[in-house]
Amino acid sequence: MRVPAEERKKQLISATIELMRREGVQSVTTRAIAKEANAPLATAHYCFSNKDDLMEAAAEAWLKNLSSFSGEVPDELGLRKAVEQVAEGFWRALEEEPSSLLAEIELILWATRNAPASPLAPKIYPAYEEELGNIFSAAARNSGDQCRIEIPALVRSFLMIYDGAALQYITDPTRTDLRALFFMMLDALLTKAGV
């Protein structure tokens, strides 16, 4: 049965993400992706010119998942609540599926290592910053909150805190204090921001 090219692209992207989650970025080859998607290798080469194109498409799909998650955050509750809800969602996802974050970190490092050949690295954090910036700005605007830290800096600080806590969690998920420390650091950031 012939699968339309757009549908096959989606299958290959999903297979790439699943392979990265399960086995790590180093295991991603065009052959492995085609096998995971149950697609002929020639089809994978037809849909994507090379592995880098496929990795970039997978990263973009990952970033779209952030958009679907962030739509759940009500922006009428104020900036502090919006940041806390995003943090809760990020931490819940980390606990439920740490392999996804590990694969995402590997993808960021792969893209950075392959720069400038891969244009992916400089796109990843700006995509997070834009999405979270929209959420946090809307929350501040809709509640009338005045933030003493500019929203882009608030978002970058949030991501720095999360990245550090998440890396520590991945290396030792049995540590019970990491979640509390993560939220303590966020509270300090929000207090500094005046919200």
Describe the model.
The chain has about 200 residues and is mainly α. Helices cover about 75% and strands about 0% of the residues. The chain is built from 9 helices and no strands. It has helices at about 5-25, 30-35, 40-45, 50-70, 80-95, 100-115, 120-145, 150-170, 180-195. Helix 8 runs antiparallel to helix 9. It is elongated, with a radius of gyration of 19 Å. The chain starts with a helix and ends with a helix.
| Fraction in helix | over 70%
Largest sheet features: none
> Over the alpha carbons, how many angstroms does the gyration radius reach?
19 Å
Which term fits the overall shape?
elongated
Number of strands: 0
User: Topology as H/E string?
Assistant: HHHHHHHHH
Return residue spans where pLDDT drops below 50 for at least 5 consecutive residues.
none
Q: In percent terms, what proportion of residues is strand?
A: under 5%
Distance between the termini: 57 Å
Q: What count of helical segments does DSSP give?
A: 9
The residue-averaged pLDDT reads: 87
SS-derived structural category: mainly alpha
Write a compact overview of the structure shown:
With 195 residues, this protein is mostly helical. The protein is 75% helix and 0% strand.
Topology (SSEs and partners):
Elements: H1 5-23, H2 30-36, H3 41-47, H4 51-70, H5 79-96, H6 98-113, H7 121-143, H8 151-171, H9 178-193
Helix pairs in contact: 1-2, 1-4, 1-6, 2-3, 4-7, 5-6, 5-7, 5-8, 5-9, 7-8, 8-9
